[in-house]
Amino acid sequence: MKAQGNLTAYLPSRRECFPAGRIALGVGVSLGLLLLLGRADLTIFASFAAFTSIYARHEPLRPRLLHQTSAAALLLLCMLVGWALAFVQAGAGVVILVGAVVAAFGAVMAARLELRPAGALFFIFAVTAVAGLPRLPPFTEALGTALLIALFCVVLGMSGATFSGWVRPGHLVAPPVSQQTRRELLGLAARHLTAILIAGLLGQLSGFGHSYWAMVAAAAPIAVSGHGARIQRAVHRIVGTLGGIGLTVFLLAFPLPTWGLALLIILLQFLAETVVVRHYGVAMLFVTPLALLMVQLGHWTAPWELVTARAVETVIGAVVGLTVVLISAAMEPAETSHETRAE
Questions:
Q1: What is d(CA 276, CA 288) in angstroms, rounded to the nearest whole number?
Q2: CA 24 – CA 285 distance, rounded (Å)
Q3: Span 211-268, pLDDT tens digits
Q4: I need a surface site. Which of 68, 229, 272, 338 has the fewest CB within 10 A?
């Protein structure tokens, strides 16, 4: 996939409504069942498991099965690590360090397994957000829910691959991906480890209590290929998030019941997935309220505190990620990476 030529250009459409609908369906079924059962405390595990659907969105049946099951296994492992950290009440420093190590490991695994989207953003998010839960559900309920939702999303993915091939054979086949060298993989791991560790520490020092948002924001620009695309991704992350903060403030101005929040989350998930591969900055307009409403659904937080923390932590993380990108460019001016652009 070619990188966007400038900050405002859109990539051509690839029938995104089909995978977007499938992903939104996975999230909707997951949230709906848990709310019917009165288990909003498990929605965070269901939501991270539903990220399985985001992977391999344009791949044919066999590679999609391989890549989605691989992504599901990694997401479940990350939630397991996060649950263990929360169970032993690990300090913030330990969580940040583990998150940085997971970032390096997840980025390399994603590259080796040729997962798309590339990078470790979702893996970092799963570990650190679960580790920060104020109330921890029982292990079997938490991970059992995540496993069932992940399996459901894989089944959805298989049906989506079959339907897409039937509608327009060959249209949604992913392009071939170049294997990365050991040196490139080490550089990828080093960038993730450094950026996520520094962003987490600075986020913790900010005092807002949501350092994982800084860590996730730092991972976004270093997940894509080419220094120009990385700089563009950092700018999109900041500008899109700040715009999304405005939308979140508007949405939270209207008191909504739990079901109302769930329906908004499903709608925002669909909208985000229809544009994320076309323009990352526009997608962040929907991803930001989506993430914040998901936090509100599981554990209510004062809205102003929530949006302020999101804005500050995102700027911190994106600036750290951008700084690491620029330093990397200065150290390797002739870099010819085979990393593939994240969706």
A1: 13
A2: 17
A3: 889 999 999 888 877 777 888 888 888 899 889 999 988 888 888 888 888 899 999 9
A4: 338
Q: Please write down the HEC assignment for all residues of the chain.
A: CCCCCCCCCCCCCCCCHHHHHHHHHHHHHHHHHHHHCCCHHHHHHHHHHHHHHHCCCCCCHHHHHHHHHHHHHHHHHHHHHHHHHHHCCCCHHHHHHHHHHHHHHHHHHHHHCCCCCCCCHHHHHHHHHHHCCCCCCCHHHHHHHHHHHHHHHHHHHHHHHHHHHHHCCCCCCCCCCCCCCHHHHHHHHHHHHHHHHHHHHHHHHHCCCCHHHHHHHHHHHHCCCCHHHHHHHHHHHHHHHHHHHHHHHHHHCCCCCHHHHHHHHHHHHHHHHHHCCCCHHHHHHHHHHHHHHHHHHHCCCCHHHHHHHHHHHHHHHHHHHHHHHHHHHHHCCCCCCCCCCCC
The distance in angstroms from the start CA to the end CA of the chain is 9
Q: Is 60 left (phi over 0), alpha (psi -120 to 50) or beta?
A: beta
Assess contact for 85 and 127: CB atoms under 8 A: yes
Tokens at 272, concatenated: 């985000």
Write the pLDDT tens digit of every residue in 220-232.
Answer: 888 877 777 888 8
Mean pLDDT (the chain, rounded)? 84
Residues 6+ apart with CB under 8 A from 84: none
pLDDT tens for each residue of 285-312: 999 999 888 877 766 667 777 788 888 9
Q: Which has the closest alpha carbon to 203: 303, 283, 132? A: 132
